[in-house]
Specification:
2 copies of one chain form a homodimer. Chain A is α+β, with helices and mostly antiparallel strands and 494 residues long. Chain A folds into 3 domains: 274 residues, Bira Bifunctional Protein, Domain 2 (BirA Bifunctional Protein, domain 2, 2-Layer Sandwich); 112 residues, 3-Layer(aba) Sandwich (Rossmann fold); 64 residues, 2-Layer Sandwich (Translation Initiation Factor IF3), CATH 3.30.110. In chain A, the strands form 7 sheets. An 11-stranded mixed β-sheet of chain A has the order 3-9-10-16-13-12-11-24-27-23-22, sandwiched between helices. Chain A has a 5-stranded mixed β-sheet with strand order 18-17-19-20-21, with helices on both faces. In chain A, α3 crosses α7. The radius of gyration of chain A is 26 Å and the shape is globular. At the A-B interface, β2, α3, β3, β4 and α4 of A face β2, α3, β3, β4 and α4 of B.
Chain lengths: 494, 494
């Protein structure tokens, strides 16, 4: 079996989309399952994408006035119970630390938990940090002058999920969690919406992934939130992926952790809260937005390698000539802020390299051979369409720079067209079931009750992804015929 | 009590150095103890220093060919036992996860650990990641072509320390851990030494903290290492702080996790390993290298805020005039890559602000008042010496830029002079005890046995910090009179 063949052995999307995804994550060297159930190893190439995401998001958080900080990994069990909905939402999937020491096994060669080292109170590995953070904020907030408090944390969290999938749902994942405190309800609501917009901007302009902004229904809200704002994206198989959420928490955590402040009029009130987060799950969303049967398609704004150059040569002398020309191109590309690698390894054939960089989703591939040398040209292949063209080396830097932007726009446009094509308005429940089965996003009227929502979920596996912001036309619930304030977005979801 | 007075209420260094440190960490808003024993909250100002450290170190790691990745937080208990010294070193301070679910307490209002959700095998929160990483490397390494494997991870780790101190020794801390695999012993040894040099360069040129490079004795080695290379710094109280270590691990983990590869000759061998790390402990080292009774003294290369500008005004009109001039200065400073803030808050007096920015260690303070307006001048205060001068606004940007570099050099020089003044060579054990008590680093001959090392430690609390590289003059052990290959470095340590 040749390497090139092995690289191509992706399950095709049509055959089994889920298996295609799983294959691709592993074969493109993004991540793999670890020895610990549900926990993944994020490999260098996957982590490089996460680093790019982090850098961009972190800059956006700082531009909007936030500062990073770090809070403990472990949370006293009792903290979780302070907010009733919150404990209900997270208690069932908590990793619990009960002991703080191992000792030699008197009956074997290994180590055992030392029963003498039992903690007085068990500690939970954070599934999210509202409780430990608001317990800390109690000491940081006394007056309206201490507000707003705009903090973000980059961290690992753990939720003991039973069914896990690389990036999409893992027991441990990496994320950022913003936790802000405000003097007024209005200010906290503005903050929650502002961060939803930051996420939407990131999704659309960096991930090239169009999103629908809206608010969650009560049943789909974050445990402890008054309102959960979400951005929802359509994957290539028509399923929805919740790509980021921003919560208006009201005074729930202020009350649970007794965080009060003296306002301008001298009155005492509980602080108002928001929290918001995105995670390594975004890498899964990225993959399922653009990639194909040849491998990853990465948006240029997030690709760790934007351009690869492959020499095609028959002799060492020819390679030297190519390398000399390529060197100048590399210098020019780097000067334009483009990340580029030159793969002149003599252990792999050009065809193998082409397949590898297609698999890895490098947006632009340049190749230079003997004829190019003669003609002062270079072959340019764009990963999104797999189209090739031969262009002159003069001005290649500007050509590539424009092409990268064109690819970024094109894959966004393609994803948007796909979503628009697969988004339908329906008015009857039968039509709903039919269109859902075809893999669509469905805009339908709903009577606003958790009961109807639950019934639809049980009967069709579709959930209300959000109540979109951009629609306010009333109608009648497709299931019960009762009045509906506006259409809501239904889909099956990751 | 005025705020300005409160800010000044640091314990003085002479009175109680340890309390001064503790006070300063809290009052300068770097970190505080959390509700979880031994775990700290790193506050935004402290975290901003860590972010600067991370960015610089990460660039250095990448320049030396390393890639970041991420491995699971949890390690199966049995992995720890695979390497005998390693388990011996870490088993006694492990946080152990035994359950994965909580449930409602049938007899109370809170939640309890669900006894039905007990893990088959307990999981340890990583105290360091050699075991989980080498278990992963087994699948990544087959041939010499897969080597070297140069990986780094930024992560949190946990060691259940009994006596903790903010930054210096905490149950949870943030760090980076490099884990590399190589085809030959020589290459791994070169890597371990290379990373020691990267750390030394960072310590001296960014932290302005002179370090002594050397190798640890057997008793002080990392659990599982063949050799531990270290950089040791002297704190202001004469105690040593181990600021970074780089380990040559031989084939210990290759063997423990059966990581073999086919070499160029077609023979199978175990992979050779290194690991190396620095942690948030460096922030403690930074504080105890330069700060004083007025607060932090931060090296300009790591200060989150390099310059603060304070207006001194009698009227809104005067403030407007000052702000107009300051705006131009800010633009100029920012264009030079200098981070600057303008504190024109009307809720605090200039004196309060001066004290606050001294406490926070901002390297340069500029102040502009009515007379400065008339004369086109500005007052410049440097934090390291507290010296003030009034200079003309023309060319202030270049002046400040040079001053920042001068401060960086000056605090390094001062720390180096301090260390040199307090480093002595002694030849008798009596002299050793006397000089140690005075707070010195001591270079003395030692017979090379763990017994003598242990005796000295028990009798004086001094440990061998390292066997320095730059000395090879033989002599006789100060305790036993037996032959000694070279002087080694003794000190009491953090």
């Amino acid at each position: 079996m040749t390497m090139a063949k092995e690289l191509k052995e992706l399950t095709s999307q049509d055959e089994n989309y889920s298996q295609w995804y799983q294959d691709l994550v592993v074969k493109a060297d993004l991540a793999e399952n670890s020895a610990v159930r549900g926990c993944m190893v994020i490999k260098p190439y996957g982590y490089a994408i996460w680093e790019k995401m982090q850098r961009i998001l972190d800059d956006k958080f700082k531009e909007t006035g936030h500062h990073n900080a770090y809070f403990p990994l472990l949370i006293p069990k009792s903290f979780l119970s302070r907010e009733a909905d919150h404990v209900e939402g997270f208690a069932k999937e908590c990793a619990v630390v009960t002991h703080y020491r191992l000792k030699n096994d008197p009956e074997g060669s290994g180590v055992i938990v030392d029963p003498a080292a039992r903690l007085e109170e068990e500690l939970i590995i954070r599934p999210t940090s509202e409780t430990i953070i608001w317990n800390t904020y109690k000491n940081w907030i006394q007056s309206y002058r201490d507000l707003p408090l705009l903090i973000n944390q980059w961290a690992n969290v753990m939720r003991w999920e039973m069914r896990t999938r690389l990036f999409l749902r893992t027991a441990e994942f990496l994320w950022q969690e913003g936790h802000t405190a405000h003097a007024t309800r209005e200010e906290a609501e503005v903050e929650a919406r502002k961060m939803q917009n930051v996420y939407a901007d990131f999704a659309e302009n960096y991930m090239a992934m169009p999103v629908i902004k809206g608010v969650k229904t009560e049943s789909e809200r974050f445990a402890g939130a008054v309102d959960t704002y979400t951005i929802e994206a359509m994957m290539q198989d028509g399923k929805a992926l919740q790509a980021g959420t921003s919560h208006f928490l009201g005074q729930n955590f202020g009350k649970a952790f007794d965080v009060t402040f003296i306002d301008k009029e001298g009155k005492t009130d509980y602080a108002w809260a928001t929290s918001w987060g995105v995670s390594t799950r975004l890498i899964g969303a990225l993959i399922m937005s653009h990639s194909d049967n040849n491998g990853l398609v990465l948006p240029p704004h997030l690709a760790p390698i934007q351009v690869v150059i492959v020499p095609i040569y028959r002799s060492a002398g020819q390679l030297a000539q190519i390398s000399e020309k390529v060197d100048k191109i590399i210098t020019g590309l780097k000067a334009s802020g483009i990340s580029v690698i030159y793969d002149d390894r003599d252990t792999k054939k050009p065809g193998w390299k082409f397949a590898e960089y297609e698999l890895k989703g490098v947006p632009v591939r340049l190749a230079m051979g003997g004829r190019d040398l003669e003609n002062n040209t270079i072959e340019v292949m764009r990963r999104d369409t797999l189209e090739k063209e031969t262009v002159t080396c003069e001005g290649i830097e500007a050509h590539v720079k424009n092409l990268l932007e064109e690819i970024q726009r094109n894959i966004f446009r393609k994803a948007l067209e796909h979503r628009e094509k697969h988004t339908v308005k329906v008015d009857t429940y039968d039509q709903f079931k039919e269109k859902l089965e075809e893999g669509n996003f469905i805009l339908a009227h709903w009577d606003g009750t958790p009961e109807t929502e639950e019934r639809i979920k049980n009967e069709t596996k579709a959930t209300i992804r959000c109540i979109p912001f951009d629609d306010a036309t009333p109608g009648q619930c497709m299931v019960t015929g009762k009045p509906s304030a506006q259409r809501v977005l239904f889909a099956r979801a990751y």
